[in-house]
Here is the input.
Amino acid sequence: MFLALSRIIKYGFKNFLRNGWLSTATIAVMFLALFVLQSLIIFNVVATTAITSVQNKIDISVYFKSNVTEDEILNLKKSLEGLNEVKKVEYVSQDQALAEFQARHQENSAVSQAISELETNPLLASLNIKANNPKEYAAIADYLNNQTLSPIIEKVSYAQNQVVIDRLISIVDTAKNGGIILSIIAAIIAVLVAFNTIRLAIYSNRDTIGIMRVVGASNNFIRGPYIVEGVLYGILAGVLSFAVVVPLITYASPYVANFIPDMNLQTYFASNFLRLLGYQLIFGIILGVFSSFIAVRRYLQV
Amino acid sequence: MITFQNVTKTYNKHSTALENVTFKINPKEFVSIVGRSGAGKSTIVKLVVGEEKPNGGRIFFDSLEVNKLKYSQLPQYRRQIGTIFQDFRLLTGKTVFENIAFALEVEGRPQKEINKFVPEILELVGLKEKINSFPYELSGGEKQRVAIARAMINRPEVLVADEPTGNLDPFNTWEIIKLLMKINEMGSIVILATHNKEIINTLSRRVITLDKGKVIRDEEHGRFILTN
Here is the structure.
């Protein structure tokens, strides 16, 4: 048993080295396939981060009339927090609003001067509401526009931002669905191309497989070396594609950060290094072994 | 000992490769099977090796019923039979040494034995200096001698040769026939399918003559006679 296994491994390596060109070509194609798969993984991470960061920017604010007490506002806050759709409610008091306003305009002396000349605080207290799902802002806005609340509410920002919010929602949806469909298509193409390349490589060995059967080799003894070759293809292609991705990530990271400030590709990559490398190797090995197995099976019929 | 009992083989409705073929080959016999192309010689070889199954009749190897062997039992069975083909059928990606060693490796024989036996057998077929060559570096005669070395290395009870000299010049043809006779002298049954008249007439051994899938003659010291 052990003897057979060691012979299988020995011949796997020997065949791999002897068919240098065939091995190189197969690895090149598998490299492309794995590279595409890896790019898809990273693309999806970037896209998800981008979508989340866009979603986090959407919120609606409720401004209260200046005569409304803080207790009333906090009551409403509590009932809002009880809603399923609501993720977070943030209370901004009149004083806070003023402080923020001043901080934002401290460079502009005209504005700060005008503010200090006023005796009362012109700004209104508000609640900033974030929804779990951007599609739910409409429902939350409806809730706030209720008749019973109208005496205390000055305005709800949703009405003015509705168009922008709706458009963002549709962009986010399209990006999500498009990303998934594109990923699936690209992954299928990559896998099929790699599978067929290995099949062709083994097709050129179909006579050899038949001869081995006639000489009395068991199927495992025939199949073994091809599977070892498949593993080698997978490992080498995986390492290769990883080696190409590392400098690409380093190069692209600052550009990505320009678009999506929340996304630090390099950090993401560094903290998921082993996982990503593992994916590559596992994908590669599964692809290599599976393709070899299927391809050899066809010629074992003798 | 090999026995064919009323063996019939058809590949499709229109052609009958073998029809009701019966013969028995005793231990240590040297039997030639002759006939025109398409008479069924290769079919007999394929049936013996288990590459094809008969549509009717039974084939025995000693007491083992070959036509009833399962796919998974074939490797074990084939290790008892050496096979030689017109087109040599060497493993192109392996050296001469590895080609011959393969027949021992499939049986799980230890490396020590392999390292000892393979050079010995190469010496016997006169190819010791080619031990590390690849098949594409060999001439036709040399390839066939490697194939014979592979077929006989595990001392099979039966050696089946399907037109082994079909691709060879007269000189190499005789070298191969001499080797087959040597193997026969060492105790193996040799089944030689051929349409080479000269070989048959010189050998003066048992000849089974096939015509259109039927045995038309089976003689102890046969000659090559094909009449219509």
Summary: Chain B has seven helices and ten strands.
